Amino acid sequence: MVLKQLYQQLNYQILKIRSEKSWGNPTFFREGERMKKLHILMLSLIGLFLLPLIMDMQTVQAAGAGFTVSANIPDNQYNEALSSFDLVMKPNQTETLSVVIENLEDNTKTISAAANTGYTTDSGTEAFDKHNPGKSSQAEYQFSQLFDQPQMITLKPKETKTVNFKVKMPDQLYAGVLKGALYFKDTKAGSTQGTDQQGFSVKNYYAMAIGVVLREHPNIHTPANLKLRRIRVSETNYLHEPAVLAKLENVRAATPGAMTINAKVSKHKGSKTLFGYQREGITMATNSSFEYGIPLGDSWINHGKYHLHLVAKSSQKTWVFDRDFEISVNQAMQMNRKNKNLWWIWLIIILIIIFIILLITTYYLGYRRRKKQDEKQIKELEKQ
Predict the structure, then answer these.
(1) CA 191: distance to chain centroid?
(2) C-alpha span between 176 and 252 (Å, rounded)
(3) What's the CA gap between 255 and 316, in Å, rounded?
(4) Model confidence over 302-317: pLDDT tens digits?
(5) Do both 79 and 191 map to the same domain?
(6) Which tens digit of pLDDT belongs to each residue from 344-364?
(7) Is 138:286 a contact under the CB 8 Å cutoff?
(8) Cα Rg of the chain, angstroms
(9) Is 221 contained in some domain?
(10) How many domains does the chain have?
(11) 327 and 211 housed in the same domain
(12) Contact assessment for residue 163 and residue 114, using Cβ atoms and an 8 Å cutoff
């Protein structure tokens, strides 16, 4: 809203100055009031540029869920130390998983319950809040498709219920694991808490999940395998700043464990690193993909060919990827314009422009003053 008002005020000043034909009229520089308009215009330009750079993001916090869930562990549990499901199954086997859900509050609750497929967020974590996040190109089965349809559970105040989920394994032997979660969400969303980076409303909701791992070969370890699918640039992403995005895909029904990913970007056939990014503790769901972001930082990007060197290391394996990519003229312009870390460069450019305008203004005023003095002297000489 502040930006909009400032922008409208700026347009008003420009239109008013243009209506007076100020730039072609010497009287524009004669009056102090109109000089103020020029100063207001300059200050507005600075404010219009700097204001988005200093605005703070709103944060959203959630209170307690108001209900609890706990798994009834069956006899075919593989890892008995876990409080979640880790089951050894056979092809075409059917089993019912039961969960106890308790309402802790004095009001009636309606809870949605679903078996959700695990996926990898763009921030590099496993998540289970989507029922069907999309099948990976290498996935044979969707975890959610092995279960019954989602259900709605009504809980009276302080009531406890047992909820059942029926699962059926695929007909054929399955290498690796099928991983997801039983996801319980309070259907009553919280109040609006603010807006995100794109301006959409953000609401709280309360949810809890119980992990589920289904395996047919407990003694056979299937290793994860990563592929670099593509590289692209983006001016807006989960990092909220311009970045190079490398899409990594886990093509197997296995998890690589916690990874450290280190990515460096250099010029094509160059050895000097222009910018890079390293993160630890990244996890990936089975048969999933995500885009690893390498922010530009304070680097000014030019169009042309670049090279990405990315190393992903876990306790299982180390993956090394090298690939060239290209940034177009338009992409480079947009990324530099959106890069808040380059505010000082834009500020210098604006100050240089303002200095040039003031220099021209001062020269013009001096020229007008000298011209008047010369005309006055000529008239005095003519009178003599």
Answers:
(1) 23
(2) 7
(3) 10
(4) 899 999 999 999 999 9
(5) yes
(6) 566 677 788 888 888 888 877
(7) no
(8) 32
(9) no
(10) 3
(11) no
(12) no
3 state DSSP class of 357: helix
- Burial of residue 313 (number of CB atoms within 10 Å: 0-12, 13-18, 19+): middle
Strands (E), 28-130: 67-72, 85-88, 94-103, 109-117, 119-120, 126-127
Q: Answer for the pair 258, 314: CB distance below 8 angstroms, yes or no.
A: yes
C-alpha closest to that of 232 among 279, 297, 282, 293: 293
| 158-170 pLDDT, tens digit each | 999 999 999 999 9
Least confident of 22-36, 185-199, 245-259: 22-36
- What is the Cα 366 distance to its own chain's centre? 53
Q: Does residue 276 contact residue 265 with C-beta atoms inside 8 Å?
A: yes
With the C-alpha atoms ordered 204, 210, 215, 221, is the resulting torsion angle positive or negative?
A: positive
Residues 378 and 239 in one domain: no
Beta strands 207-215; 201-203: pairing state: unpaired
Domain hosting residue 30, numbered range: 2-54+343-383
* Token pair listed for 289: 């993909």
What CA–CA distance (Å, rounded) separates 377 from 145? Answer: 96
DSSP string, 253-283: SS---SEEEEEEEEETT--SEEEEEEEEEE-
- Residue 204 belongs to a domain with what CATH number? 2.60.40.10
| 206: three-class secondary structure by DSSP | coil
CA distance 371 to 146: 90
Between CA 7 and CA 44 the distance in angstroms is 8
Which residue, chain included where needed, has tokens 């995100």? 196
In this structure, the number of other CB atoms found within 10 A of the CB of residue 172 comes to 11
What is the average per-residue pLDDT within 323-335?
A: 89
**CA geometry: angle 253, 225, 265, nearest 5 deg:** 135
Predicted structure pTM score: 0.69
3-state helix, strand, coil in the chain (%, to 5): 30, 35, 35
Residue 111 has pLDDT above 60, yes or no: yes
